[in-house]
Amino acid sequence: MPGAGAEEGRPAGRRVVITGLGAISPIGVGTEAFMAGLRAGRSGAKPVSAFGTDGYEHVVACEVVNFDPARWLVNLDPAELGRASQFSAAAARMAFDDAGLTAAGLRGRHGLIAIGTTYGESRDFDHLVEQEVTQGPHRMDPAITRRVNASRLSVTIAHELGLTDVEAVTIPTACAAGNYAIGYGFDAIRSGEADFALGGGADALCRMSFAAFYRLGAMAPERCQPFDKDRRGTLTGEGAGVLVLEDSESARARGARVYAEVLGYGLNCDADHPVAPNPNSVARCMELALRDAKIKPDEVDFISAHGTATKANDVAEASAIRQVFGDAPPRTVSMKSMLGHTFGAAGALGAIGCVLAMTGGFIPPTINHVETDPECDLDCVPNEAIEADVRVVQNNALAFGGNNAILILGHPGEQR
Amino acid sequence: MIGASPVVGPPREDAAAPREDAAAPRDSAAAPRDSAVRTVISAWSAVSPFGLQSADFATGLRERRGGAALNRDRGPAPVEAAWLVPGFDAREVLGRKGTRSMDRVTALAVAATEQLLRGPGGERIDGVGNDTALVLGTNISSAQSIMDFTRDTFVQDKPYFVDPARFPNVVLNCAAARCAIWHRLQGPNATISGGRASGLLALSYARRLQRSGRAGPVLCGAAEEFSVARAWLQTLSEPDLPTSAILSEGCAMVLLEPAGRPAGHLRTALAELLALEFGVYRALTGVQPALADCLDRAFAAAHESPARLWAVISSGGPNLPGVAEDAALTEILGDRVPVRHRATDLVGDVGAASASFGLTAVLALAAQEPAAHGRTALLTAVDRDGVVGCGLLRLICGAGEQPS
Question: Using the beta-carbon criterion (under 8 Å), do A151 and B286 form an inter-chain contact?
Answer without folding.
Answer: no
